[in-house]
Amino acid sequence: MSALGCEIRDELDKLRTTGTYKQFNVLETPQGPVVRMAGHGEVIVLSSNNYLGLADHPDVVAAGIEGLRRYGAGTASVRFICGTFAPHLELERDIADLSETESALTYVSCWNANEAVIPTLADDRTVIISDELNHASVIDGVRLSKPQRKLVYPHSDMAALREALRSCTGSRRKLILTDGVFSMEGDLARLPDILELARAHDAIVLVDDSHGVGVVGATGRGVAEHFGVLGQVDVITGTLGKALGGAAGGYVAATEEVCDLLAQRSRPQLFSNALPPTVACSARAAVQVLRARPDLVSRLHENTSWFRAALRETGFAPLPGDAAIIPIIVGETARAIELSQKLLDRGVFVTGFGYPVVPEGTARIRVQMSAALEPVHLERALAAFVEVGHESGLLPVLKGGAKR
Ligand SMILES: Cc1ncc(COP(=O)(O)O)c(C=O)c1O
Questions:
Q1: Domain count, the chain
Q2: Distance (Å, whole) CA 106 – CA 181
């Protein structure tokens, strides 16, 4: 083996010995409340971002097939070089309407969208001010930027954000970056406070609402709807790979000028293909389902409240939050991985996260809810949690089950 091969093998071995090596589980059926997993049979899914259950929704699937038939596989190049399809523009109109912004621009992922918009808006007279728990794609967007200064404030610490804003004397532009829903904690950004501070200090607010759209707010329009501030956020980024169909794709929703500038300048737009038309069409269908079926959002909220309360009643201590992410802190990484393995052995697919994704000692099982989960799935999953919790010493005393 070459020297490089040996080094890589050592690195991989280290991941295995520290229990942080990640396996791909093979799904043999579409993403849904229950999937057939190779080697495990049917398992209940509590670890996907399929929040509204639209990944295999008949309208979403049919629209994708129709998109493929009508437009073929894709643009075969960048939009400004090779053209765009009508569904791209229609989807962007739908996303802008959903976000209550003037305009929107799609990318092949929200990862790309964040790496596009942050460096484009942050010029050399900009100060970027970012929450410490922002998603990796926001962090990488900051890394790619060349602003005047980069500041990071402790998670949701509004006094620290105020201080950071006050320190920005002499900068032309201040750009506050926050996740709408923090993906590892499941908590919401303190958006009204952030907007108030931004107004007071003439700053721009960018919210990555990937885990918020389709999930929070009475009709699933995200954190801005949840807090009654729709239309007040300067820039929203989001994904089409979670609640909105689950395929892939991301977007920036903002003013016409910002979206136009992104189309002219942002590197992932200028040097990368457009969304495949299958994805644009199925995402459009997902947005239509979201608009037509607010009951799916209510169902997601009910499932989340029920499961969170049932976990508490049985002795677990999930982190509080208003989104569909329910983390249970278990301590060490190896423990989180062991628990998720034991749950999988009992037919419940839920992922354990440890260091370096979350700080050392705060490894967790991250439960994610879906509107597609039926009461019977939730009850079976809860029973497995109680058994595993008891067996692993996480629940010293069983207090009995909760009924739905
Ligand atoms: C907050 C947040 N932003 C961005 C992304 C990236 O989304 P995509 O899969 O569309 O690249 C994710 C995905 O995990 C996310 O959780």
A1: 2
A2: 20
